[in-house]
Amino acid sequence: ACHPYEPFKCPGDGICISIQYLCDGAPDCQDGYDEDSRLCTAAKRPPVEETASFLQSLLASHGPNYLEKLFGTKARDTLKPLGGVEKVAIALSESQTIEDFGAALHLMRSDLEHLRSVFMAVENGDLGMLKSIGIKDSELGDVKFFLEKLVKTGFLD
């Protein structure tokens, strides 16, 4: 087990390092895992569990095809064609950009462009766009907050 002041254990070699050395530009794990782009992106994003819980709550409240409004036709049946809620949550956490997200989940170009337009609407404060795809007034705040977190960590770059 690692000491509390060095809580991060490198998966390859078992070396324990301080959190401050994660994603600092200098590899501290022998295999460089502490500088892995997916790890560093995920460190800036909401936790996978939080994202999965948010997506699951939308599906539970609105039915298994609700996220089709954001992710396109492959998001039917509780995201099963995309690999399920957990896989989508991981992809949102680890994908540096929306392009990486689309590639990870094999989204069609049209669905990816739709998703990009949703994110750009959020970035520009255009809540009318969210309403036009069926996001209810009572959900606008939560959906906007969630999408803004991704935008602020470079998802659209």
UniProtKB/TrEMBL annotation:
Domain of life: Eukaryota
Keywords: Disulfide bond
SMART domains for this protein: LDLa (SM00192)
Record-linked PROSITE patterns: LDLRA_1, LDLRA_2
A Pfam entry, by short name: Ldl_recept_a
Protein name (record): Prohormone-4
PANTHER family with a match to the protein in the record: PROHORMONE-4 (PTHR20967)
Organism: Atta cephalotes
